[in-house]
User: Fold this.
Amino acid sequence: MSRDLDRMNIAIIALGDDPVLLKILETWFVEEWADWYGPGQPGDAREDLEKCLLPNARLPRCLVALDGDGRPLGTVSLRDTSPGSDLYPGAWLTALLVHCDFRKAGIGIKLIAAAEREATRIGFPKILTATATAGSLVLRRDWQQVKTLQSASGPLDIYRKALGPV
Assistant:
């Protein structure tokens, strides 16, 4: 992506601050993770995203990166369930997704940093993630690999990061 990230004026908001974005994110989820959210598959993208709108829930949370015109660029969620959450309870960074038109511009790193801040804000001492594809991103944010799990789709690396004072 040739856009300069600094000129994009990126804001990261909670999905609850602009619930109209839910429909766009739902479409992205179905396209990106068709094996889970596609027709006839076990996942329900709308239901998962709607859970992020519950006003009194600590988790899940969904954050959305927007450009200066309010267009969504990417998203990330914090949940208490993920592959590996039975071994390591806590806040899990999940559903990290940057729209294909905006990848390689640093938005994923900004979303990870925002998820870390949000997990700290709501009182978690650490954050975890399970990924087969984003390991290099979390390592750039000083996460530590703690385990590799075998899943139906292949190996998933589990990473953890200690957060600041809660």
Summary: The helical segments are 21-32, 34-37, 45-51, 107-121, 135-140. Residues 5-162 form a domain with the Aminopeptidase fold (CATH 3.40.630.30).
